[in-house]
Amino acid sequence: MRNKAKIFSIALVLVIAAILIFVIYSKPSKTKVANNFREDYLKISMKAIQTNPELVTVSKKDKNGEFKDITAKFYIDYITDIQEGKFNKALKLLSDKDNYDIYFESGHTDLKPLLVEFRDGYEKAGIGRIYLYIHEAKEQNLKPIKLSEEEQAIRNFAHVVFNFNYKDRYTKYIDNKDKYYEQFKDVATKNCIEMMKLEHFPYEIEEIYGADKKSSVFIKVKPGPGGDYIAISYQLRDGTVYKMTQIFEAKCKKVNGKMLVDEFQELSTVWNEL
Fold it and tell me: 149-273 maps to which CATH number?
């Protein structure tokens, strides 16, 4: 009887020990999965902004403890770097999960292909609907939409032109217009640059705003209904962000194997307060 009691006691101790080990180590495991998910989510959010920034929302906790939409001001500060693949500054800010949040429309056809980059195993972390989208994206082996050479050339051109004082071009060459317009040679042909010179574009606009890069930050460009293009930029004036919508015509030409914008004509510009 004593031996049986002793064996029972040892077995009970082992069971309790096993339970304690499970309790102690299961929580960190779940925490690790959740942390991995957030790390993946933040990185993929950056690519979502590159793909279609209008499908992403950034929020910040206010003094009342409520999260408020700050997407426009976030883009003013960070989108140019994000578009160029420089994520570190934005990720550092967003890593403060107690005060910042970012959301992208993961089920949208533009963004769903990005979900294949998530690691496996998130169904155990209680993530919810997004896991279904991740599963579908991986199962269908979705691929990101690839821009044509011409579409990429238009995007590159808009990125350089509609980001005012891009790479300090205005600050550096305020008194040398020829040198100023040389800064567009990687996105425009000589013919296009000459046309821009004649129109004093975008020099005259940058002359108004000077060195302030936040005076115009490029957001996205998309084809218009009439064969033209629609470029969206954000402008910060006296603490208020305005959405600037510019419609323009453009034609591309391949020069030395690289597609560049060869003709450009601005048609209209509209401002709306955000």
Answer: 3.10.450
